[in-house]
Write a sequence for this structure.
């Protein structure tokens, strides 16, 4: 699986360098957590890696793909096939069933459509929600909704999962179970994980832990 390589990354917001020469090397199939205070640039980093924002300098590469500079259809194709997103808010569409929500990424990846339904059904089973495929978000618990979001993020077989406070709105036990799920399913799909979190217990479960300091990443140890 492809490595993630970031060098000299800069992002200026409101006249301030939120990211200032940041570097990161994450091998394929590895996991890393980023901790730090709110407003330190953690989510900005994920947005740049996910081609949801544009850098002011430096480079991001995922395997052979140079992410910095992607725009338009190329950025959409990258987001559809190479990365999966799991946010603090599950962002499920309330008028769609759990299965239909998981299927949504297939709309942006034509090559996946033929097998998408079987894949979505399999993923719901892997997150222990096979019996909830026809359920709507309003009938699911917070933990169940987040598990649907994890399945959705994995539908197109991304090589990298970008997780922004995925357990932030969950109680401790449910959050622990979602972390178990993320690590287990990502490993089963050979995907790497970059996790932003305020929860140090969850951060320490990653292969490596970084702290955002002055717009750069410092090794925070385990």
């Amino acid at each position: 699986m492809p490595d993630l390589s970031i060098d000299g990354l800069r992002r200026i917001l409101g006249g301030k360098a939120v990211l200032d020469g940041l570097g990161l090397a994450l091998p394929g199939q590895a996991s890393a957590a980023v901790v730090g205070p709110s407003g330190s640039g953690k989510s900005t980093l994920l947005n740049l890696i996910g081609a949801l924002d544009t850098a002011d300098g430096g480079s991001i590469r995922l395997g052979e793909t140079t992410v910095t500079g992607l725009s338009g259809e190329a950025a959409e194709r990258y987001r559809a096939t190479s990365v999966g997103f799991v946010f603090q808010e599950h962002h499920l569409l309330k008028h769609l069933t759990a299965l239909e929500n998981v299927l949504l990424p297939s709309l942006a990846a034509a090559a996946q459509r033929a097998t998408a339904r079987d894949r979505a059904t399999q993923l719901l089973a892997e997150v222990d929600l096979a019996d909830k495929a026809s359920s709507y978000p309003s009938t699911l618990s917070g933990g169940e909704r987040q598990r649907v979001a994890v399945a959705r993020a994995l539908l197109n077989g991304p090589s990298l999962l970008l997780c922004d406070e995925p357990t932030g709105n969950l109680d401790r036990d449910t959050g622990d179970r979602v972390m178990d799920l993320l690590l287990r399913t990502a490993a089963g799909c050979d995907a790497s994980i970059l996790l932003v979190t305020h929860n140090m217990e969850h951060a320490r479960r990653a292969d490596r832990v970084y702290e955002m300091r002055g717009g750069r990443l410092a090794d925070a140890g385990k």
The mean pLDDT is 90. The domain at 29-40+71-219 is CATH 3.40.50.300 (Rossmann fold). Helices lie at 42-49, 72-81, 98-103, 113-126, 142-154, 172-188, 200-203.
